[in-house]
Structure prediction request, 508 residues.
Amino acid sequence: MRYSGWKVITQGLLGNKGWTPAWRDPAPKAEYDAIIIGGGGHGLSTAYYLAKNHGLRNIAVLEKGYLGGGNVGRNTTIVRANYFLKGNSEFYSHSLKLWEGLEAELNYNVMHSQRGLINLFHSDGQRDAFARRGNMMINQGDDAILLDREGVREHLPYLDFEQTRFPIYGGLLHPRGGSARHDAVAWGYARGADRLGVDLIQNCEVTGIDVEGGKVVGVQTSRGAIKAKKVGIVVAGRSSQVAAMAGMRLPIESHILQAFVTEGLKPVIHHVVSFGMGHFYISQSDKGGLVFGGDLDFYASYAARGNLPMVEHVMEAGMTLMPMIGRAKVLRSWGGIMDMSPDGSPIIDKTHIDGLYLDCGWNYGGFKAVPASGWCMAHLMATDTPHEVARRFRLDRFRTGHLLDEEGTGSQHNLH
Amino acid sequence: MRLTCPLCGPRDRREFYYYGSEDYLQRPGPDAGPEAWDDHLHLRDNIAGEVRDLWYHETGCSQWLIVTRNTVTHEILSTELVADRKKKGVRA
Prediction:
């Protein structure tokens, strides 16, 4: 069913009885041309672009829980293209362009809102670094405007400009940055893929990867064995466990990242804002809740919940920057399992096994990458060659020394 | 989360700095080659369950600890000093 304003009106008049499920619930077939393990944002977009761009039709997405039930359904939804390093900047630039056409592409409202992203700076050194970053963004063809203190005040009058500890010197405005509706991105790609014939198979946990003579031949699942010529592992925080089924040890450590949302408020924060003196970023959802987060808890974890010290730190950073939010009540918090790589950049690559591909290492920046990650992973799986904008996301770069350490913080998994 | 330091007793998590897997104790020699260094610095078992990792008692006794804990439940199972392990002659 194609969605439109006309459909909303006619269905409204007819008691909304004519809506049909957005995707089928098929049983797994005995064999597929390609299987994607993982029904999150990246897995669903990979399946969509495999079908759309490369004409494959016999594809399945295997999801152990329900579609979009992992990190894509629980994140701070920031969409931006403000990367610095060659290798990262062209990839995220490509992703932002895909976001800009996503609603028309998918016939689905992903609520992409380019409300502007402002990264604040608090010293001369930080100003220089942001000026340089802004120049790199402009060189890439994206947009960046360096704001001085008064320029920031025009956009964000509610910040605590008068404080002496972390005075606000200015900010880097990325006007095309913004946010989107997290669930809708997963649902939009799921519906799009289903309409192109992709089988989305939920409650189907992969328990083994079958390899014969150095070539992948299929997977074992909780719903039986399924043969496949090509298999893509797109499972974020669980990448190490799934790759271990194929005998691989990955450069990934899984960490916990907490985020928070308040009760719904009238519009008060109109941009996405990040603090430069403590890891804190905030935006306001269309429902009115303030959505904010900070750093990792810093220790490896699969608990999907964090500890109180980081809660305190995030709240302190928020109160330091914008004391007005102290009146809002926090409604809920959650913790996601982040696939942290040693240089903070992702991996989209072949493996040493023929027909087995890997898409992981998104650290805590995977949401904005959903469209381009799927685009590039689909290109890799269909053609066996890396896509131009993802060619530096190699699995072997840690051994060869071609790291993409955007923040220059070193080879420790939790420092990115 | 609280960790029991063998010297200082049960202490708040905030007193400790987390470094990473105990793999970091097995430092290769300078001529070990890129494979060994890649293994040491980057590759991890990344287990969902019982792991052993390194914590530094930064605002306490300044000792390095090997902590055995469960990454799914956050339960701390045991702690020992890296220094004690070396005394016992275990390669560290």
